[in-house]
Amino acid sequence: MTTTTTAAKAPAKRGRRPVPAPDTTSTSTTGLDALTTGAPTTAPSSLVALDLVHPHPDNPRRDLGDLTELTDSIRAHGVRQNLLLVPDPDQPGEYRTVIGHRRTAAARLAGLTHLPAVVDDTLTPAEQLELMLLENIQRTDLTPVEEADGYQGLLDLGVDVAQISARTGRSETTVRSRLRLAMMPGPARAAVHEHRATLEDAAALTDFDDDPDTQAALADVIGTDDFAYQLAAAQRRRTRRKAMEPLLKLLRAANAVELADVDKDGVPAGLGRALAYDPDVRMPSTHGTSWVTLERATEILEEVAAGWAWAIRGFSGDLYVYRPQNLEEVATEEARPAPVDPPWLVAQRERDAEREAARERFAELADATQTTREDFVRGLLARKQLTQAEQRELLAFTGFEMLLGAWLDDPDTFAPSWQHDDPDRLERWLGVDRDAILAQAADDEVDPEDAVDQAVRTAIADTPPAHRLLLGLVLANEPVTWQGWWRPYRGLRAWYALLESLGYVVSDAERTALEPESPEP
User: Fold this and answer.
1) Would you say 123 and 99 are in contact if contact means Cβ atoms under 8 Å apart?
2) Which of 135, 229, 247, 501 maximizes the CB count within 10 A of its CB?
3) Beta strand 318-324 pairing with 271-277
C-alpha cells in the first residue's frame, strides 16, 4: 500500500455535516501502550536501520497527513517510543511496520537512519491488522472508508463482527455500517474518503442496495451539487413504485405481459386501455379508467387474465394497463371512419398535449426540488439566529423585490401574493399541531378555533424577526408546482437567487430548468 505525506481536504458544503478530518497530531495513546507492552518479541528493543523498514501493505490508513510538526519534533528530540515491527515475509531480514508508520516517515524526512523498535514474529496477520486499526481509531486518524477497509480485512481473515466490535471498542452497529461503506461503488467511497460527501450521503446510498443501477447512478454524482436532487428524485421514484406494487403483483400473478417502447398516447394493436394510474394525482377518479384510485385500479384488475399487458410510461413513470379487445370492439374500430375534428378541438388537444408533456417533464423536478428546498429552509429556521450576512441578504433582497413588484404591478414578479396564504401551510411550518390543540380544547371546554388562533399567534411571536421574514417569503413562493417549472417566471428565478445567496445548493437540473428558453428564430 502506497502512502503519501500530505492529505488534501476538500471544504465541506455549507449546511451539511462533513466527515470529520483525521487528527494527525498525536503520536501515542495509553490504550496502545497497554496493547504493546509485554508483547512477545524475538529480540529486545534495539535500533533498526530505516532502510530495512517498509510500510505494511495491509495498513488501512492511506494518507499519513501533514508530517511537518512531527518531523520538526523528531529532528529536535529524536524518537522516544519504540516502533512495533514484524518480519517481512517477502524480504528476509527486513521488516514491516505495525505501529509507528507516521514516526517512520517523519524520521526519514528528519534525516534519521535508525529507529528504536521491537520486532514481534508471533503476530498473526489478523492481529497485525487489528493493532493497526486500533492505533488509528484511538487517534481518530482513519477516515470512515479506511476504517471500513480495515474491518473488511479482518472479516476476510475470519474475525466476525462481534469480535471486531469487542476488540476495537466500536458498537456492532458502527462496524456494520462501515462494512456497508466498504461495499459501495468506487466513486462513493472516494467522495467520503476525500471529505466531499458526508456519512449521511453514504448511508442514503445503502438504501438502494437492492437497486444496483440506481445506486451506481447516485454514486456517480455523490459529492456534487446534483446529489441531493438526484437522491430526492430516486427516492420519489421508489415511493411511486412501492405505491404501484399491489397492482404489479396482481399483473404478475396473472402473467400479464410487460410492454416496452409504448408511445405516450399509443395503444398496442389489438388492445384497449384498461386503466391509467398515477399515485401522485391529487384527485384520482373513483370511476372510469383514467387516473383512478388504487381501490378502483384494484377493482379493475380483479378481471385481469391471459392476454393483458402493462407498461410503466412517461417521464414520471405512470402505470398503464391494457386488455384484449373483443371481436365487437375490433369490428367497431375497423368500421369507424377517420374522425374529422373541428379546428377548436385540434387546438384544444394540442394545448392539452403540451400541458401533459410539461407535467410529465416537470413533475419529478417539482417534487424532488420541493424536498431539497424545504430541507434547506428548515435548516435555517432551526437555528436560533441567522447570521448578520444572511439577515442583510433577506432584508435587501425582499425590500428590492417587493418594491419592484409593486411598481410593475405584475403577478409574475416576486412580490409576495399574500392572498395565496394557506393557514394549514403556516401551521405546518410553525409546528402547530392543530389536531392536538383541538383535542385539548375539547377537554378544556374552550373555543377550538380560538385555541388554534392563539397557538399560531404565540408561535409567530416566538419566531425571531429574520426567521419571520424568511417564513413569510416561503409562504409567498412555495410550493413550486410543475406548472411553475413549465414556464419559469421571473419571481421563481428571484426566489432561487435568494436561496442560493443563503447557501442553498442549486442542482444541475434546477439550474437548467430556470434558464429562459431561447427565442424561436
Assistant:
1) no
2) 135
3) antiparallel
385-390 CB contacts, 8 Å cutoff, 24+ apart: 385/464, 385/466, 386/464, 386/466, 386/467, 386/470, 390/466, 390/502
Residues 282 and 171 in one domain: no
Q: Locate 336 and state its grid cell.
A: 369507424
Which contacts (CB < 8 Å, 24+ apart) does range 459-463 have? 459/430, 459/431, 459/432, 460/430, 463/430
Gap between the Cα atoms of 212 and 178, Å rounded: 19
Q: What angle do CA 379, 18, 235 make, to 5 degrees?
A: 60
As for how many domains the chain has, the answer is 3
Q: Same domain, yes or no, for 157 and 302?
A: no
Is residue 472 located within the same domain as residue 385?
yes
Q: Amino acid identity of 2? A: T
What DSSP assignment string belongs to 205-252?
A: HHTTTT-HHHHHHHHHHTTSTTHHHHHHHHHHHHHHHHHHHHHHHHHH
The order of strands in the sheet holding 46-49 is 46-49, 114-119, 83-87, 95-99, 53-54
Tell me the residue type at 131: L
Residues 292 and 440 in one domain: no
Backbone angles phi, psi at 502, to 5 degrees: -90, -5
Q: How far apart are CA 80 and CA 219, in angstroms?
A: 45
Full residue range of the structural domain in which residue 156 is found = 30-221
Place of cell 490504550: 31
Is the four-CA dihedral 288, 289, 291, 293 of positive or negative sign? positive
CB neighbours of 170 closer than 8 A, spacing ≥ 6?
137, 164, 178
What pTM value is reported for the model? 0.49
- For residue 12, is it within any domain? no
386-428 residue pLDDT tens: 898 898 888 777 766 665 555 555 666 555 554 344 667 778 8
Given a contact cutoff of 8 angstroms between Cβ atoms, the answer to whether 4 and 59 are in contact is no
The answer to whether residues 331 and 354 belong to one domain is no
Burial tier of 193 (Cβ tally within 10 Å: 0-12, 13-18, 19+): buried
Does residue 490 share a domain with residue 384? yes
- Which residues does residue 21 pair with via DSSP β-bridges, in sequence order? none
Q: For residue 466, what is its C-alpha cell?
A: 429574520
Cα distance between residue 127 and residue 42, in whole Å = 16
Q: Going by C-beta distance under 8 Å and a sequence separation of 6 or more, which residues neighbour residue 113? A: 49, 50, 51
Would you say residue 276 lies in a domain?
yes
pLDDT at 167: 75
